[in-house]
Specification:
The complex is a heterodimer of chains A (about 280) and B (about 200). With about 280 residues, chain A is mostly helical. Helix content of chain A is about 80%, strand content about 5%. The radius of gyration of chain A is 61 Å and the shape is elongated. The two termini of chain B are about 20 Å apart. With about 200 residues, chain B is mainly α. Chain B has helices at about 5-10, 15-20, 25-50, 50-70, 80-100, 100-120, 125-140, 145-155, 160-170, 175-195, 200. The longest helix of chain B is centred in the first third of the chain and has 23 residues, at about 25-50. Classes of the chains: A mainly alpha (about 280), B mainly alpha (about 200). The interface between A and B is large, with 36 and 52 residues.
Chain lengths: ~280, ~200
């Protein structure tokens, strides 16, 4: 047989990736080549020893993507806010100017500034009371327009805030749902594993407990039988001793009785002789 | 038998996270970093035997991950892709060390540590022993050449399949197996020379 396994085959064998004929073939070869078998054993031992090398605990840094965060945070900087505030103010002034009809003009009579073009173009000389009236009317109109602008601006602001709040709320809800979904998935997997382990543990406990109980009951029965046997022997010895004592006592009594009877008989037999002797 | 932890389960079922991360979801990217940071750090730590180098490689790996996650075509290939990034950063660090001649200095330092560790291994304090054993095994790993070392770490400690290692290193599976066989053989000789056996490990 010219078969000689190469290192790829040997690694496949070490990592259990061979089966059937290939595995049998290499095992037969290792049986015939103890040096190589020893080498493979050495590789397996090395893997066991290297497995003792423990992982180190480490905490991921919190600011790993800090550069990106800086970019997004730059939008919240004070300079950015100032620029946005100035732009918003200019926009507001332009909007108010447009809505109030603010205009300026330069004619032969001079430079005119006003809120209504038709009045600014008047060619007739204006009296003082007319000017006062005009100013009052203009101021009243101006107040109304400002009030309207202010109201519309507040409405725009309210609707914008409401839309933003709704958007943020939905984003927050989505984020929370995603977070909990992921946690729930983890929790489900963990719970299933825990349940399986618990079931296995309970089964193991009952099996082990059942066996222990059997052994315990068996030992208990054996102990109880031994106890009964011992008790029986003790009782037997006790009664035997009592019987012996009784026998000894009754023998003694009998002997005493016999002696007493013998004494009485002897006494009775001696009475006539004494009486005869006395008569003489 | 290798027991799968909750973290392993999460790592192996993070397809939806990867998809979200590819779409620019920073939270998903953050979660992936939390899941994989320890693995990548330990890969680099076993490669260099140095905490600072390992931290540096781990951070660079996840910065590259953040920049290039959108390039990943298939979420199933995420593990191999991430280890490829880590492996490339390890190679880059070694090149820098070599050019600065620091590599030899650290080698010398590692040998000194090893001598002390071998002498102290039989100390009765078990905690100390474990720490010293880690030090000896780290030194043994460092005696391997780069190609063998990365294959041994990926297979023995990171649990990558041969196919995945081949993808990471862009070599054939047979090359991976060949490097692993000679790497383990070399480690065996080093450990025997240091009188580290399975019997000592069990005691």
């Amino acid at each position: 047989m010219n078969y000689t396994p190469d290192e790829v085959t040997l690694i496949n064998y070490v990592y259990g990736e061979l089966s059937g004929e290939d595995k049998a073939k290499i095992e037969a070869y290792l049986n015939e080549n103890p040096d190589l078998a020893e080498e493979i054993q050495g590789v397996n031992d090395t893997r066991k020893i290297m497995a003792a090398y423990e992982n180190k605990e480490v905490i991921p840094p919190a600011d790993l993507f800090k550069s990106d965060l800086n970019i997004s945070n730059s939008q919240n900087s004070s300079a950015w806010k100032m620029i946005m505030a100035v732009a918003a103010s200019v926009s507001l002034i332009l909007l108010v100017g447009f809505l109030t009809g603010f205009n300026t003009s330069y004619t032969d009579k001079g430079f005119q500034v006003g809120f209504d073009k038709s009045q600014s173009k008047s060619e007739e000389p204006i009296k003082l009371d007319q000017i006062e009236k005009l100013v009052r009317e203009t101021l009243a109109q101006n107040r109304e327009q400002q009030q309207r602008v202010f109201t519309s601006y507040l409405q725009i602001l309210d609707s914008s805030n409401a839309a933003m709040l709704t958007k943020q709320k939905s984003e927050l809800t989505t984020a929370i749902n995603e977070q909990f979904k992921f946690d729930r998935e983890q929790l489900d997997v963990y719970t299933q594993n825990l349940e399986r382990k618990n079931a296995a543990l309970v089964n193991q406990y009952f099996e082990s407990s059942g066996l222990e109980q059997q052994v315990y009951v068996k030992n208990l029965l054996v102990d109880f039988t031994a106890y009964l046997e011992e008790q029986r022997i003790q009782d037997r010895d006790f009664y035997l001793n009592r019987l012996i004592d009784l026998k000894v006592a009754s023998d003694l009594k009998q002997e005493e009785t016999e002696q007493m009877l013998a004494s009485i008989i002897k006494s009775v037999n001696n009475i006539p002789n004494e009486e005869t002797t006395q008569n003489f | 038998m290798y027991a799968e932890t909750l973290l392993d389960i999460a790592m192996n079922h993070s397809d939806s996270l990867i998809t979200k991360a590819q779409n620019g979801d920073n939270r998903a990217q953050g979660k992936l970093v939390n899941l994989w940071y320890k693995r990548i750090y330990n890969y680099a730590f076993k490669y260099f035997g140095d905490h600072d180098e390992a931290m540096d490689v781990a951070q660079k790996t996840f910065i590259t991950f953040h920049e290039k996650i959108w390039q990943l075509k298939d979420s199933e290939g995420f593990k191999a892709w991430l280890y490829r990034i880590a492996s490339n950063h390890c190679h880059e660090s070694v090149r820098k060390m070599n050019s600065a001649s620091q590599h030899f200095a650290s080698e010398y330092k590692a040998k000194d540590v090893n001598r002390e560790a071998t002498a102290a291994f039989f100390n009765p304090d078990k905690q100390y022993q474990r720490s010293e054993l880690n030090s000896i095994l780290q030194t043994a790993l460092r005696t391997l050449n780069e190609e063998q070392r990365e294959v041994v770490i990926m297979k023995e400690y990171e649990g990558l399949k041969f196919k995945e290692i081949a993808e990471v290193l862009t070599v054939s599976e047979n090359t991976v197996k060949s490097r692993l066989y000679y790497g383990l053989g070399h480690l065996k000789k080093v450990l025997v020379a240091k009188n580290i056996t399975t019997e000592i490990l069990q005691s």
